[in-house]
Amino acid sequence: MENDEKKMKKYRIIAGIIVIGSIWGMLECTIGGMNTSIGALYLPMGAVMAGLFGIGFMALGRRLFAQKGMALGIALVAGILRFFAPVGSCILCSSIAIMAEGVIFELVMSRPIFSLNSLNAKDPRTWAYLGIITGYAIYVSGYIITQVLTPIIAHDGGHILDVVGILPLILGRGFFAAILGGVSLPLVVLSEHLSIDVVKVRKELYYTASTLATTFCWAVVLLIYFSGVF
């Protein structure tokens, strides 16, 4: 019986990774490459997506399943999906950045003190501070990793000094990811509506909903890819 429960949880975790990663990836493919501004203030969508949706979805996965590696799996699915949509100026850069954000998020949240299921931290300010730190860390680190790896993978002759030259830009744009991370993390961690024990959800309902949501996300991205909607 215990083995059956472990197997059931494993399959539910895999389904959860795919569906949450697909939703994040679909959003990256549809609005992640758009140029947005508020008046004269330019909003870098990479920072917005990392601080708002990146942290939000990865934290959601960790909260629902309390499983290490969950966030990284979600980021891998989102990154793969992002690669198939011709939205934005650098598709490969965006894909690598999303996956790198998953690695950094896991490194931060792997410490016991940052457990999203901790019952000892109900103060929104605690999670807001952590969200600010995490948002800044995943965006800046992900951006730098992207600038280093993209020339290597794409064989375009980039140089490490190129990263140094745009470092002030990277550090400055991290401000937006930090602010949004300070909003999204406490919302996900402290929301009572997200107190769901996914293991107890009926199997038929869980897998049907997961399959439908995943299929919809991939269908949207494939539509974008083949039709050039954006």
Gist of the model:
With 230 residues, the chain is an all-alpha fold. The protein has 8 helices and 2 strands.
Structure write-up:
The protein is mainly α and 230 residues long. It has one domain (2-220). Helix content is 73%, strand content 3%. It has eight helices and two strands. It has helices at 2-30, 45-65, 70-82, 91-109, 124-154, 160-165, 167-190, 203-227; strands at 36-38, 41-43. The chain has a two-stranded antiparallel ribbon with strand order 1-2. Strand 1 and strand 2 (41-43) form a beta hairpin. Helix 1 packs antiparallel against helix 2 (45-65). The protein starts with a helix and ends with a helix.
Strand content bin: under 5%
Order of helices and strands: HEEHHHHHHH
Terminal CA distance: 50 Å
Can you list the strand order of the major beta sheet? 1-2
Give the radius of gyration. 18 Å
Total beta strands: 2
Please supply descriptive tags for the structure shown above.
mainly alpha; globular; 230 residues; two-stranded antiparallel ribbon; 3% strand
Helix and strand layout, with pairings?
Layout: H1 2-30, E1 36-38, E2 41-43, H2 45-65, H3 70-82, H4 91-109, H5 124-154, H6 160-165, H7 167-190, H8 203-227
